[in-house]
Write a structure and sequence with these properties.
Order of helices and strands: EEEHEHEHEHHHHHEHEHH
Mean pLDDT: 97
Helix content: 40-55%
Structural class: alpha/beta
CATH topology of the largest domain: Rossmann fold
Distance between the termini: 26 Å
Number of helices: 11
Length: 282
């Protein structure tokens, strides 16, 4: 575990493996990178060097709020700078759900710095956009307006950020409520406006123009629908698509929430898919 000052924000990171092509992996939601350690360890045993990090506002990194771009664009640029500092560019970038958004935005914003994308549990569609926009942003707008920054700091997510990095308490409590609400509303608007995109964060035009190799593994729940993954793979030239990693469900009977244990059990299969993809493009 180490730390780096990245674009004015301290990020916690870890490198798994001592040599080989670089791969960056990011989990979904705003969860800590520790979720990815088992898969990262397996990849390192296959000859790859894996960069894991806690994004800003996640895990043990600083909380920091910037309305200049969407949250996932900011995350992508942070990872690019962290990888640059570590001499890891160009690299493969992958992740699940929010981590897949970060990876896709990394590929779109920094095409010369990416060797390929590893995407699973891709997020898209009206239901996902509306539901997650409220979870990630709307709920914190309501908390701040009702109870100020103290209420934000006491929320389940940000209290965990404070526990992991105590200095985050002061950073949150010193922030102006209106400034915080403004950032949350800007980020929420970015998210909602992406509801009709093939995947949240990327337009059809952008995907059709991509030259980066990508590997897509379909999800099986209402947030990460197999239709979203299939559509994404159909738009990117030469994309590799897999829909046999987790159990298939009819579109009308998808899981209400992704099954953590199912995906954990699927990691050996994912490892086979990813290592073959990485070997072809490394």
């Amino acid at each position: 575990m180490a730390e780096a000052l990245v674009r004015g924000v301290t990020l916690k990171y870890e490198v798994v493996g001592a040599s080989g092509p670089w791969v960056a992996l990011t989990p979904g939601s705003r969860r800590s990178y520790t979720e990815m350690l088992p898969l990262a360890t397996r990849l390192s045993q296959e000859g790859f060097r894996v960069l894991l990090h806690d994004r800003r506002n996640c895990g043990g990194s600083d909380v920091a709020f910037d309305a200049s771009a969407s949250e996932y664009e900011i995350w992508a640029d942070d990872l690019h700078e962290l990888a640059r500092q570590l001499g890891a560019l160009p690299l493969f970038v992958g992740g699940a759900s929010a981590g897949a958004r970060l990876a896709m935005l990394f590929g779109l914003r920094h095409p010369d710095a990416v060797r390929g994308l590893l995407l699973y549990r891709v997020t898209g569609g009206e239901h996902a956009a509306q539901s997650l926009a409220e979870t990630y942003y709307g709920a914190f707008v309501k908390a701040a307006r009702k109870g100020g920054m103290a209420a934000v700091a006491e929320s389940e997510h940000f209290s965990a950020c404070i526990k992991a990095r105590p200095s985050n308490e002061t950073r949150l409590l010193d922030m102006d409520v209106d400034a915080f609400v403004h950032v949350m509303e800007v980020w929420q608007d970015h998210f909602i406006r992406a509801a009709n995109m093939p995947m949240i964060g990327a337009t059809e035009e952008q995907l059709r123009a991509m030259k980066t190799p990508i590997c897509v593994i379909a999800g099986n729940d209402v947030i990460h629908t197999p239709a979203t993954a299939r559509k994404l793979a159909s738009l990117v030239p030469g994309a590799e698509f897999h829909d046999d990693v987790v159990a298939k469900h009819d579109e009308a009977n998808l899981l209400g929430y992704w099954d953590k244990e199912e995906w954990k059990a699927a990691e050996p299969h994912m490892l086979q898919i990813f290592t073959k993809f990485l070997a072809r493009h490394a």
